[in-house]
Give the backbone structure.
Amino acid sequence: MQLTNRSKKTDKSDLSVLEKTYFPGVAKGMAITLKHFFSKKATIRYPEEKRYLGPVFRGHHILKRDEAGRERCTACGLCAVACPAEAISMVAAERVKGEEHLYREEKYAANYEVNMLRCIFCGLCEEACPKQAVYLRHDKFVPVFTSRDQVIYGKDQLVEDMDNRYTRDAWTKEDMQELWEKQK
Amino acid sequence: MDTPQLIKVTIDGQEVHVPVGTTIMEAARQIGPDVAPPAMCYYKPLKGSGGKCRACLVKVSQGSEKDPRPMPKLVASCITGAQDGMVVENFTSPEVVEARKGVVEFLLLNHPLDCPVCDQAGECHLQDFAFENGVGTTRYEEERRTFEPENLGDNIQLHMNRCVLCYRCVYTADQITDKRVHGVMYRGDHAEISTYINNVIENDFSGNVIDVCPVGALTDKTYRFKSRVWFSKPVDAHRDCDKCCGKVNLWYKGDEVIRVTARKNQWGEVEDFICNSCRFDSKKTADWVIEGPTKVKRASVISANKYPKNEIKKPAFALDYAAHNFKKINDDRPYYKNLKEVKGSEDYKALMEQNAEFFPKETSKK
């Protein structure tokens, strides 16, 4: 019974003498195997070797500092209100005199927590941030955890290390699109 | 007493009858929020307010019944009296919409745009006004005017940089409190809200300047940076107060009252002003009788991440739409009918008995 007319017709005619020996078929198959033997591998040796996932891959959260090393986050709460999983919470504090080298604005996040059990890595916090403070790193995954108390990430895990600053090729989707246009 | 003479005003194609002496703004507000012009400085409970910010500009395309000529320029609806037979265009006039864009731009010229830091963000009239009527970008390149921070005492925080000079706080201090110690000093670009000289505002009703301020220029110092408005939960509450009506909104964060404000009506105006002891000194739940959660507009950011029961309901529109647009399907399946017959047959029973060890559950049922 024919269900669709997309099926391929198989050639059911008798094989020729040469074909009956199977040598041409075997040689053809071996040629294909040999070709792949010398071509570039499709796989990599993960986890020793890691692929570049592009500049806008969404991994581990980071709270950026500015060029002078001051924290950019002002605890405005837009990331928390944008978060569909309600994973982010923060407590704001007022910058006092003498802390100008630590925090960029009058107000700063004294406490900033991301609950990685809740986070779905959608990147809406990154989009909502008006201060270019919160980003999801493209080069680092959130590691596997074994107990619940390892899951709430505080500022000690999130704030950028000035000795090992985080950079990437494109900071926004628009930058990314420009990059694609250039690479085309 | 005679019934007041009513005049007919048409605003955006909708007619309304109002008493003589009503402003265009009040007539529009009687029709509803769809046609009411925005207001940054006009504040109905405060006499003399209005006419400063130009946010409420409207086009009068027919002056009155007797004199149907249009008014030559856009007029500020909050201080222009309505006349019989007046025809007003508000949101329907492209000229008005365009003018409002300009007004937004002017109001934002010297505004620091520090919304992420500002405590007013989320309930700021300037944010709403700019969002609804303005454009997303700025053309301003010059340096914004800034002022030295000034201390107004322990309760009120002044950020002069954010001020739009609406004069509401000045009228409040004049009309609600018995002694005004602050006002607008200097002129033009240097005009600023200030006290003379470095005075402290500590009148019993001085806290109301916080509520009337449309922007974050005057904010509650006891609430400073405690939370964002959309993280706190407003409830209606009252208490017996010998100085004021005692009707307030309490703003909760967890179990803690972090802020007390006067209740605002749908135009964002306070009708019953509250005293400072209610506002600043009664921040325990035990001080108040709680009436229930405040009704917050769904469009407001304050309602974000809160799930009141009445708002979690089945999407009626979608269900109706589905009911109208999709054919009913015949849901009785012949397969099951046949299965009944099959299961009733002798052959099936014999087969099941033969293989009883493979069907422990079914045999146990039987």
In short: The radius of gyration of chain B is 30 Å. The CA atoms of residues 237 and 290 of chain B lie 4 Å apart.
